[in-house]
């Protein structure tokens, strides 16, 4: 039960009965809604054999699989590159040199404030790049700068004493980062990193808008085929579960990691919220180098 | 520079289109998000299930796919509306999942003791909700809702690609007219920055007035 909220008491027998009644009513309402949707689907003849035959052809299946492969390829490139870029930008933001810090802050704030699609279109249209590199570059710039913030928050969340102790032992800054702060931060921020990767995976679908031949594009090709009576709804019904399922799998993995961490006493102190997109102005450039 | 001055009306139209999309979708998202958040904390199991499914599915749906399904799919059911309305529906539903989570975590930060104290003073459910729980939840909810709405403003760019009048879509007309494409994009970027910075400033003011440091 929702014993964690301040809203309700633990229900007594009469309240429980009332809640059960509400439950039945709302279940009936949902069932009616679903039934209506199914009726609509049948009524507009979405389940005719003609509209579903294309999925039996090998060529079409291969087209879909190729689209899915392209989506995953774009995601893999974007994920790796944005982790790298995030690392570089985070190093910049954590730097001891003020100009480096300023430049990194400027870049991070700018790319977080721009819509990803504007960046992708800019690279695609103005710089005349192929669709895949344009998509990957746009995703990398955006997710990289969000990840930079995640990394920075992770490093700053490690207990101060750790850093001080490491410096007191005479380690250099690089050593402190790689041997002391980095490993501890990584554990705490792993869930946030993975949930940012979910965003990257979701955003690969933007490639559809710049004619990159990804999953949605393959679907569109099938859906606009007159031979099969424009099977648009069947295509959505095939594509959506796969796409959403992929993202859910990754989110679930992030949650699983987060739950495991919460049980782990070593990471109890640090807790990093998933990166919120674009909180401009709320956090001024802090000087993390000063201890 | 003359890209902006020559085509000011075009830019203004796109800018207002984006603002309109953002405002309407924000309202829809706030209303739907509030509804779903109240479902998610309800004591009735099936309502909680609806809320959870809504949030889980929409949070994991690529927005382009949602636009694709709503803008091109709903007309197949004989539902023909202007594209702008479809875009508002898609954006609003998508964002409502994030708003819902923000509101729910806000409600969950209110200590249980507050509700218990209110009830033991004899307050009814409505009184507990409106004068004890929600005011406290409201304060913690301001920053996450703000950043969700900023994300909404940025996501509205996708609508432009589905032939809805908005800021990003202006680049097409301008590049056909033969203007310098880089400057075209610079001004589009400035437009988006104005919108996101305005929302961010608005929520900063709200937070200064109502927020509490915890």
From TrEMBL, chain A:
GO terms for molecular function: transmembrane transporter activity. InterPro entries: AA_ABC_transptr_permease_3TM, ArtM/GltK/GlnP/TcyL/YhdX-like, MetI-like, MetI-like_sf. GO terms for biological process: amino acid transport. Residues 68-254 form the ABC transmembrane type-1 domain. GO terms for cellular component: ATP-binding cassette (ABC) transporter complex. It is found in: Cell membrane. Keywords: Cell membrane, Membrane, Transmembrane, Transmembrane helix, Transport. It is a multi-pass membrane protein. Residues 267-291 are annotated as: Disordered. The keyword Lyase does not apply. The chain crosses the membrane at residues 21-42, 74-94, 106-127, 232-258. Belongs to the binding-protein-dependent transport system permease family. NCBIfam families: HEQRo_perm_3TM. This is Amino acid ABC transporter permease. It comes from Streptomyces inusitatus.
From TrEMBL, chain B:
It comes from the Bacteria. The keyword Secreted does not apply. Keywords: Amino-acid transport, Cell membrane, Membrane, Transmembrane, Transmembrane helix, Transport. Residues 15-203 form the ABC transmembrane type-1 domain. SUPFAM superfamilies: MetI-like. It is found in: Cell membrane. One of its GO terms (biological process) is amino acid transport. GO terms for cellular component: ATP-binding cassette (ABC) transporter complex. GO terms for molecular function: transmembrane transporter activity. InterPro entries: AA_ABC_transptr_permease_3TM (IPR010065), ArtM/GltK/GlnP/TcyL/YhdX-like (IPR043429), MetI-like (IPR000515), MetI-like_sf (IPR035906). The chain crosses the membrane at residues 21-41, 53-72, 79-99, 181-206. CDD domains: TM_PBP2 (cd06261). It is a multi-pass membrane protein. Belongs to the binding-protein-dependent transport system permease family. HisMQ subfamily. This is Amino acid ABC transporter permease. The lineage of its organism: Bacteria, Bacillati, Actinomycetota, Actinomycetes, Kitasatosporales.
